[in-house]
Amino acid sequence: MTSPRRDFLQRLLSTALLIRLGAIAVALGGLVGVTMTAAVLACVLVLSGSTLALMLSPRAIGLVVRHPMLLVVDVLLSLGTVAALGVESPLVLATFSSALVVGLLLERRSVFPVVVVMCSGYALVAWLQPGVDSAFMLTVGVPMLYIAMAAIGSAARTAHEQHTNAAAELERARNVAAVAEERARLAREMHDSLGKTIHGLALAARALPMWVERDPATAVRQAAALADGADQAAREARELLRNLRLEETDRPTVEVVAEVCGRWQEEHGVRCHFTTAGVADLEPAVLREVLAIVCEALENVARHADASSVEVTFVRRGDGWRIAVEDDGQGFVVPADRRGPAGHYGLVGMTERAAAIGAVLDIRSRPGGGTRVVLDRSGVDTDRPVGLETDDVRV
Question: What are the tens digits of pLDDT across the range 175-217?
Fold first, then answer.
């Protein structure tokens, strides 16, 4: 049984127990003015005591949910109450919750025999009890209510299972769509970069025999160009493989971001210090956008900042997270249209990516004062992480 389903059943069981306590209270109200016999007192204490013990012990509730056959004890207590006090006792109200719990926790094939036992036990007590009024509610109504309460419990369980299955199917459909989208994106990237390079190499290779026959010197230059093109194709292939590695959804988010920072530091020779605190793994679609924004921010540092170091922080804030890329470079005046230095549109794309995942992008910079790019999806206004100690990840 999955954890969400178990939690749902535990909540329903707690509600059923609360209903039983209410029924006991109503029954006691109906016993006002009636002599309190030892049997009545014992039944009240047993029913209310066992109910309170379960309600005050989440572990006990969890045990019942995991092992529904323990409900046999509850059914026996209910039948024992009916047998001890008779079918005319107001405490019979407290036994209805047993049928409800049976419908909630037992599989459908097990509900029917247990309810039959409850109805048969009640009918047997009614038949054996002398002087019982043959009113409809006592002879037929109560057993029918047992059946109705069990049916309500079973219907609630079935509805939750259907909802859970529908949610799982929706998640699988989303994953299939995400995989298809990722394949299409990879195909576009291969066509735009690696595919064009390899096509050019093929054309040059076809022409090389002709140059060997007609102009050996040109053939040598063409062969050198082919070698350079092959090197470029190899670099593009490695880049595609690195990107695929970074976007593996089964890897921890912090590990992926740390690898981005480490690769950037290795390629550009600029110190990049990554700090993280309390961040849970992000959804694959969100992670892709976050990586794109971080890579674009680091690329801007490499192209324009002339920085000696970069600080990347990724922390939990409230119910969300915040990631910041801050450098000590030359900075710039952030234009209103966010086109960035020299008319580049990278900042516009970063802003659009942030909006796509429900985050806010804040860019702060001034000439000579460095640049700070903050991606925030937390809704927290303060500038410090909420109640966290940071762990440095040095790359």
Answer: 777 667 766 666 666 666 667 778 777 888 888 888 888 888 8
Q: Return the pLDDT at 312.
A: 95
The amino acid sitting at 61 is: I
Cα angle 327, 330, 331 (rounded to 5 degrees) comes to: 75
Virtual CA dihedral for 247, 249, 250, 253, nearest 10 degrees? 80
Q: Are 207 and 236 found together in one domain? A: yes
- Together in a domain, 319 and 195: no
First to last CA, the chain: 42
Q: Final residue of a domain: which of 105, 139, 169?
A: 169
φ, ψ of residue 308 in degrees (nearest 5): -100, -15
How would residue 240 be classed by pLDDT, with cut points 50, 70 and 90?
low
- Domain membership of residue 39 as a residue range: 3-169
Place of tokens 């992480």: 385
Predicted TM-score of the model (pTM): 0.46
Tally of CB atoms within 10 A around 144: 12
> Does residue 380 surpass a pLDDT of 90?
no
Question: How far apart, in Å, are the Cα atoms of 125 and each of 78, 128, 349?
Answer: 12, 5, 77
Instruction: Note whether 289 and 356 are within 8 A (CB).
Output: yes
* Tokens 């909540």, residue located: 11
Question: Helix, strand, coil proportions of the chain in percent (round to 5)?
Answer: 70, 10, 20
**Could you tell me which of 104, 110, 109, 149 has the C-alpha nearest to residue 9?**
104
Q: How many domains does the chain have?
A: 3
DSSP symbol at 92 = G
Instruction: Work out whether strand 360-365 and strand 320-327 pair parallel, antiparallel, or are unpaired.
Output: unpaired
Pull the structure tokens for residue 171. Answer: 């998640």
Number of H helices, E strands in the chain: 13, 6
* pLDDT at 374 exceeding the cut of 90: yes
**What mean pLDDT is reported for the chain?**
78
Contacts of 123 (CB under 8 A, 6+ apart): 139, 143
- CB-based contact 111:154 (threshold 8 Å): yes
